[in-house]
Amino acid sequence: MQEATFLILTALAAGSQHGYGIISDVAQISDGRVRLRAGTLYSALDRLRIDGLITVDREEIVENRLRRYYRLTLEGCMQLAAEAARVQSNAATALARLGPAGGVAL
Amino acid sequence: MSDSAALERGYRRWLRCYPRAFRREHEAEMLTVLMAGARSDQRRLRAAECIDLLTGAIVMRVRPRVPRTNRSVFAVVQLMCLGAMLELATAMTLLVSLDQVRSNIVTSDPGFTAAAWQAVVTGQIDPLAISAGVAVLFLLWLAWAYGREKRWPGLAFALFFAATTWSLLGGLSRGSFVYAQADLAVAAVLWLVELAVFVLVVHQSLRRLALARSRPARAGTG
């Protein structure tokens, strides 16, 4: 799973969000390292919808502008959980092997 | 005209690069996101925004529109694209190895003249290079359509594969052995890739047929 996809799914894990909310949340989760643009975001959202990992939750009109909220599907939750576990396991292995030399006491 | 109105018009203009169906569904919310992300004094699109929208539009137009879990469709699309690249490689190899082809012909026929070589180039080599170019575009088109779950590309590919095989066998029987070994090697790899696509396409069609037959039966028993 690509990092942007992982971060978008993570942004939706806490609840439904609209497009700009996802962009802001992804920037926050990644400490400003990943800044999605609209074209990239909607390509990813389209792919995730086709794959059945997210779905449209609801729509709102705010100041004459459409906001569409997306949420994770059950399949999306399962895939995000599996990917998070994989990343966590890899990170734990890396940190364990670095040991005290890496400045980490385990 | 206000800055934001000019900016919105600019965004709308770039969003026209997206497929119509996608625009119908997502243009309004994309505009919301784009306008929310713009600086308060921004009047024109930044270069990075244009590149991002253009890239997104190309991706939306080209990318297969089937779930990634449907691995067999993805495999067919990828192999068709590989086939297109190999068609291109076949044509390039043939053009690069023309001297080798000529010397092979001269070895087998010492009376082979320059005029006869010219006739071979215009009568066989040029049509082969042109048909390879057409095949590249045709295969890419089939891959694009197959990735959109259309049924006809499967049949079109089966006919293309039959024609390619017929032409290959005909060429070999007429003395294509005079071509350089590299030409024959690339052509053989290309044919094997096309065979793999053909097998996958037939397999999927049979599975679809079996599913279609089982549905009425299930409905009848249910």
Explain this structure to me?
The complex is a heterodimer of chains A (106) and B (222). Chain A has 106 residues and is α+β, with helices and mostly antiparallel strands. Chain A has one domain (3-95): Arc Repressor Mutant, subunit A, CATH 1.10.10.10. Chain A is 57% helix and 18% strand. In chain A, α1 crosses α4 (74-98). The longest helix of chain A has 25 residues, at 74-98. Chain A is elongated, with a radius of gyration of 16 Å. Chain A starts with a helix and ends in an 8-residue tail after the last helix. Chain B is an all-alpha fold and 222 residues long. Chain B has 2 domains: 3-62; 71-221, no CATH class. In chain B, 81% of the residues lie in helices and 0% in strands. In chain B, α6 (114-146) runs antiparallel to α7 and α7 packs antiparallel against α8. Chain B is flat, with a radius of gyration of 25 Å.
Name the beta content range of chain B. under 5%
Order of helices and strands of chain A: HEHHEEH
> Which CATH class of chain A is shown?
Mainly Alpha
Radius of gyration of chain B: 25 Å
Please compute the radius of gyration of chain A using only Cα atoms: 16 Å
- Provide mean pLDDT of chain A, rounded: 91
With helices defined by DSSP (H or I, 4 residues minimum), what is the helix count of chain B?
A: 8
CATH topology of chain A: Arc Repressor Mutant, subunit A
